[in-house]
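Run log // design_07
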């Protein structure tokens, strides 16, 4: 695909293995959910160390099913970060529950602040959504024990964090555990810009058998058997046990997912090396903050986010990047400031609002070269000096 960017924000790591995987499925004669999906689920569960991995159509569907499996609905409140992609908030509303937006810890740590969660809890609060921004962990030990103490369910929005591992020997568990294994349920996205990319795809993970069973049924209309079961002669009829959806993943994307999963560890390591190079150049730039300078464990290094000293400097830097044909982005606007969410309750959000006004996301992808990182940093440094 041609683009005018000299350095794009992100790029797929696709090659002959992905082509072979798609051909294998095309030649197999079976396209909808079947053996590739089953294998992808098995391999994904083994890779992150979780009992159940349930493949779905996208990350938003994964969040929706997580909310449904926990029976969240009208009258229930779900505390979640103000800085997030809008999917978790939209799915909270989709099940009839109310999102309450909590602040992030700091500019350098743009994940849910446990103290801010505590301030928002009411008797109606039923769940917390923790999003591992950029692939770096939330303060999961604190959030986990807060949820236990207050009787709240914990959903990880792990869409940025595939392959991340929580390392904090002071906290055992969750020391050594992967993103997606730290709450009641987790949601992953395999959208094209993600570390594991299939176009559109997602995964729900959980260690709880009861939740896994609900998610599996809800993924396919609450039906007791699949077309694949009937095709193999394992069943010839079905019942519908609950009102569900069609959130199934197809065989082509599952086959791509298996190849991408096999590449994930090396690609995340490569991303980590590029992030270290970015930090060497940008840490200490007066007034600028590099997100996640301190984080618990091995991040998935999904995003390279930096925070400018003020909104004007960000504007200048973004313009300078664009002029140099370097793509950048902003993850994310503050959700309660979107028109559809303005009427909803939120805590005080000084850190989230300052972050949203000043953050820039810089290019980061496994095939990015060290000179490209230096090039991007040079543009930022020159814009900062003006
Ligand atoms: C943090 C976060 N949550 C949820 C989603 C939704 O995933 P999807 O686009 O696969 O529906 C995304 C993806 O863009 C995301 O970045």
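design_07 sequence
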């Amino acid at each position: 695909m041609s683009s005018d960017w000299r350095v794009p924000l992100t790029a797929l790591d696709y090659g002959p293995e992905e082509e072979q995987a798609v051909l294998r499925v095309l030649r197999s004669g079976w396209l909808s959910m079947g053996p590739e999906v089953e294998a992808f689920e098995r391999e994904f569960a083994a890779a992150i160390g979780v009992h159940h991995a349930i493949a779905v159509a996208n990350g938003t569907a994964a969040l929706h099913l997580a909310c449904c499996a926990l029976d969240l609905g009208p009258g229930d409140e779900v505390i979640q970060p103000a800085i997030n992609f809008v999917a978790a908030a939209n799915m909270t509303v989709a099940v009839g529950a109310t999102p309450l937006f909590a602040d992030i810890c700091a500019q350098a740590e743009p994940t849910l602040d446990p103290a801010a969660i505590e301030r928002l809890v009411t008797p109606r609060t039923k769940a917390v959504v923790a999003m591992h921004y950029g692939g770096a962990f939330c303060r999961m030990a604190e959030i986990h024990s807060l949820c236990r103490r207050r009787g709240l369910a914990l959903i990880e929005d792990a869409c940025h964090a595939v392959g991340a591992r929580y390392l904090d020997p002071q906290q055992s568990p969750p020391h050594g555990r992967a993103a997606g294994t730290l709450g009641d349920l987790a949601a992953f996205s395999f959208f094209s810009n993600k570390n594991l990319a299939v176009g559109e795809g997602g995964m729900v993970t959980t260690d709880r058998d009861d939740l896994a069973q609900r998610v599996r049924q809800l993924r396919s209309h609450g039906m007791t058997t699949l077309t694949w079961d009937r095709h193999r002669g394992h069943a010839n009829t079905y019942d519908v046990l609950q009102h569900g959806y069609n959130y199934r993943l197809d065989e082509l994307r599952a086959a791509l997912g298996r190849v991408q999963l096999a590449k994930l560890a090396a690609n995340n390591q490569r991303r980590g090396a590029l992030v270290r190079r970015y930090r060497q150049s940008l840490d200490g730039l007066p007034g600028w903050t590099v997100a996640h300078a301190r984080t618990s464990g091995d991040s998935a290094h999904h995003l390279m986010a930096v925070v400018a000293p003020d909104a004007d400097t960000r504007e200048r830097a973004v313009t300078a990047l664009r002029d140099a044909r370097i793509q950048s982005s902003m993850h994310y606007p503050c959700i309660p400031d979107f028109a559809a969410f303005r009427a909803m309750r939120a805590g005080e959000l000084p850190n989230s609002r300052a972050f949203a006004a000043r953050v820039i996301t810089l290019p980061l992808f496994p095939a990015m070269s060290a000179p490209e990182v230096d090039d991007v940093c040079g543009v930022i440094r020159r814009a900062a000096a003006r």
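The mean pLDDT is 95.
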